Amino acid sequence: MDFELDADQRAWREEIRTFLRDNVTPELRAEMAEHDLEFIGGELTAFRRKIGAKGWFGLNWPKEFGGLGLGAVYQHLLVSEFEYWGVPGPDLTVTSVAPMIMRHGTQQNREEFLPPIARGELTCAVGYSEPNAGTDLASLKTRAVREGDEWVINGSKIWNSMAQRVTHEWLCVRTNTEVPKHKGISVIIVPIDAPGVVIRPITAWSGYRTNETFFDNVRVPATNLIGEVDRGWKYITGALDLERGALTNAGDLRRAVDDLLILAREIREDGTRPLDNADVRRKLAQLDADVELAQLMGFEASSLLESGTIPSVLVSVEKIFSSELRQRIADVGTAMLGPAGLIAGSDPHAVMAGKFERLYRAAPLLRFGAGANEVLRDVIAQRGHGLPSYGR
Question: Would you say 37 and 102 are in contact if contact means Cβ atoms under 8 Å apart?
Fold first, then answer.
């Protein structure tokens, strides 16, 4: 294996960095800090439009779908650099939803939804979990009934992150109650502003906003069904595999460890440096090595995607490793900073605007987001090692 980027990939990475240097302004960072990516309009909207204008949302899409035709490694580099800079790049609409529309959608699905996704104009929240259907997603109850040329949808979704700032739902619904539960599920694209859609906020311990979303006799065109009716479980699991890969890009982890190394070299009030402590040096060295491993996992997954394979087992391994590494980084950071590491970013005395206090509170989210780590360990055992599922 060649562990180095080739000349074209290095040039691409430098192009991304130049764009970020030119366009990540103090105004953009101020808006993001104030609104936590929930503000519609303003600097963030303008930033997304610049990305769309460059074609970067569809950079690894086939050219026949309006993309640039670049490989998955190029997208991996893009997402990694955006994460390192702490700004939003391609989201799950681009990395998870669009590939499923390309693979399984009808021609009308592709023509209607892919171009606005590529321009950054159509964004999706993923409507999966329900109050009584989380890990056992196939137990979902949200119904869609065909009436003429429309689907009529009733039900609710929980942990519906980003619903307050997207244009559509990638909605998982039950369309058939007469077959085994995995076989009667479909996916429908639903405009978030459709009559009958109601969004209620839920604020997590981390300060992150998620939502509960209700669908009361919501009507959408029959053509908003993705692919074939009752075949949605395949589309959902494929999108979840891609979501795990997208959520586990290690760019932000690399930045967090780099920031810890900077803080470890600073002289404290007592004249010492954290880096002078052998235990701190050992922990930082371990984190640095683990981030390198997480980045290599990301490149391996990207290489498999370029070959046409969805790396289900690998992205599950990567997701577990990186989410638990994120928690260890937060633990080391807050411990190394001592009481100062517990000051929230709203306090002017907070170290690095409270970065590690915020990371500590946010880290648990990705241990269960896109599939709880405990469940993914079963996925690895069954898909990767051929072990039987429970009850078999």
Answer: no
